[in-house]
Specification:
CATH topology: Aminopeptidase
CATH architecture: 3-Layer(aba) Sandwich
Helix content: 25-40%
Shape: globular
Radius of gyration: 15 Å
Structural class: alpha+beta
Strand order of the largest sheet: 2-3-4-5-6-1-7
CATH superfamily: Gcn5-related N-acetyltransferase (GNAT)
Number of strands: 7
Low-confidence stretches: none
Strand content: 25-35%
Largest sheet: 7 strands, mixed
Mean pLDDT: 95
Number of helices: 4
Number of domains: 1
Length: about 160
């Protein structure tokens, strides 16, 4: 199967702020999440979009990444229930990668994604990186790429890849 991977970046805070679409939201920094909790979030958000990268890692490899203080997992809660998560990787000097971002299927289409992405962008720029970047692909939600562009990211590379 062929997929198209789109790489996006920004070099300055976009200056737009999306207000929360409802009152029952909380965003919690999951510091040193357990492997089982991280894998739960990853599967709950990523399974519909065939996320695979973290599934290829052993528990030890994944622990090394997500327990690094420069890797942050932030969980969006709606009425106390996990609704999505964002993972910011700050391990490269002067850069932040939005490694994972998404909502669980039950929460898509409620305006939560725009709000959570805006919050995540603000969090990343709070570290004053030179560059904030991510990649998405044609397997992701159809609104992923348009939402990233609307939020202020710009495309810098597109490639086609064969996956098994």
């Amino acid at each position: 199967m062929q997929i198209k991977i789109t790489y996006l970046q920004m070099f300055a805070r976009p200056g737009q702020n999306v207000p929360p679409p409802r009152d029952d939201l909380a965003i919690v920094h999951a510091k040193r999440p357990t492997i089982s909790y991280y894998r739960y979030l990853y599967d709950a958000v990523g399974t519909p979009w065939q996320w695979r990268s973290r599934k290829k890692l052993s528990d030890a490899e994944l622990t090394e990444i997500i327990h690094d203080p420069r890797d942050e997992v932030h969980v969006l809660y709606v009425d106390g229930v996990p609704a999505g998560f964002a993972e910011l990787d700050r391990r490269q000097q002067d850069e932040i990668e939005l490694v994972q971002f998404g909502l669980m299927p039950e929460y898509i289409g409620q305006g939560l994604g725009s709000y959570f992405l805006s919050w995540t962008i603000e969090r990343a720029w709070g570290y004053q990186p030179r560059r904030f970047w991510l990649h998405t692909c044609t397997l992701d939600h159809p609104r992923a790429l348009p939402n990233y562009l609307k939020a202020g990211f710009a495309i810098y590379q597109v490639e086609t890849k064969e996956i098994a």
